[in-house]
Amino acid sequence: MPTGRGWSVVGVAAGLLILAYSFGELELLAAGVAAGVAVPLAMLWVRLSTPTATVSREIVPASVGEGDDVQVRLHLTNHGRLPISSARLSDPISGLGTAGATLARLGPRSTAIVPYRLRARRRGVFTVGPVTIDARDPLGLASAARVAGPRDTLVVYPRIEALGGFPIVRGRDPSSDAAHPEFASRGGEDFYTIREYRHGDDLRRVHWPTTARRDELMIRQLETPWQSRGLVLLDTRAQVYDDEAAFETAVRGAASIHQHLRRAGFDLDLVAGSVHVRASDPDPVGMAMETLAAVQWHQSLSMMSVASRARSALGGGALVVLTGTIDDEILSTAKLLAAEHGSVSLAAVTRAPMGATAIPGTRSTLVGVLPDEPWGAAWQRMRGRSWAGA
């Protein structure tokens, strides 16, 4: 079809023909005819020279954090017998814009690499492509576009912030940083089995009833604490957040806390709205980050129903709830889950002034967080008597 320049030439041709008819000038007639013929010839040129090309895409890396740069390389292969010249490539990225490049010339049976850089301005799961090849005639009067290449997916994770400090829950010994199950002849807190005495065993662990029955020293074998467990719960109800900035701050908090506790060895679940990522799922860290990359707020969601469904699969430990403005439903949800967890903290992302107070009826802490506030400072305020320093 004609380009903007081509339509301009058509308008000029029409004007010249009108002037030629009005004044009877052959020169104007010749110029008008030449201009009028140029556009159809350009369209024919483009039609005959439409490239037979394929495009593949390389995204490095395929998953990035919010605000990071992404390198994209388009591999354009010309399968035709004619060269491709003056072709424009357009690669749309849903929600982030369109990348464009102009290819001066690509010979037949050859491949060119067209790189560009993309800034992941916000989190989300974005569709990249397909690439559109816009071929033009040498004068730029006509163009023909064709789609080439597949669609790819770019996952942009929420920005992760550095945090310090951990909840002291069953399974975490601040003096040893034990974060996995092991059995030892000394220490531990849970009874495991009875075994024969070995040289060097602590005599305080002698199990005297069994020793008397078997007439030999028998030792109580103790189990050290199991791996620390926890749950990060993100409230996705739209009505509790002041604006989108508050919700995005809560999402970044959920991602930062989840990553922080996972790196510390916590066996951690994530509940984001109606999605529950269990610690036992395949690749729970990847699934949790992809869930938080794609999560959106909901206009109608019952947090009590979400908590009730997730409660049966939880393993106790530390609970961190992230929400917006505090309402009765989130308080009831926190109370429901508090019975299953030894350490409970609730972060309310809101512009309303709030201090650190206890949630009535629970061994919990409530902390206010401003939208766009760094989570490192907020995390420190959430540390109470049930938290350990790092």
Descriptive account of the structure:
The protein has helices spanning 4-23, 26-48, 208-214, 244-263, 284-294, 303-311, 328-338, 375-381, and strands spanning 53-60, 63-65, 69-78, 84-93, 97-106, 110-119, 124-128, 131-136, 143-148, 152-157, 166-167, 183-184, 190-196, 218-223, 229-234, 267-272, 275-277, 318-323, 343-349, 364-369, 387-388. It has 390 residues and is an alpha/beta fold. The chain has four domains: 4-48; 53-157, Immunoglobulins (Immunoglobulin-like), CATH 2.60.40.10; 183-223, no CATH class; 228-388, von Willebrand factor, type A domain (Rossmann fold). A six-stranded mixed sheet has the order 17-16-15-18-19-20, with helices on both faces. The two termini are 66 Å apart.
Number of domains: 4
The poorly predicted ranges are 170-189
Share in helix: 25-40%
- Give the beta-strand count: 21
Which term fits the overall shape?
A: elongated
- Per DSSP, what share of the residues sits in E-state strands of 2 or more residues? 25-35%
What is the H/E string? HHEEEEEEEEEEEEEHEEHEEHHEHEEHE
Overall radius of gyration: 33 Å
Biggest sheet architecture:
6 strands, mixed
CATH superfamily of the largest domain: von Willebrand factor, type A domain
Helix/strand-derived category reads alpha/beta
What CATH first level of the largest domain would be assigned?
Alpha Beta
For the biggest β-sheet, the strand order reads 17-16-15-18-19-20
- Report the total helices: 8
According to CATH, the fold-level topology of the largest domain is Rossmann fold
Average pLDDT confidence is: 80
CATH architecture of the largest domain: 3-Layer(aba) Sandwich
Q: Could you give the distance between the termini?
A: 66 Å
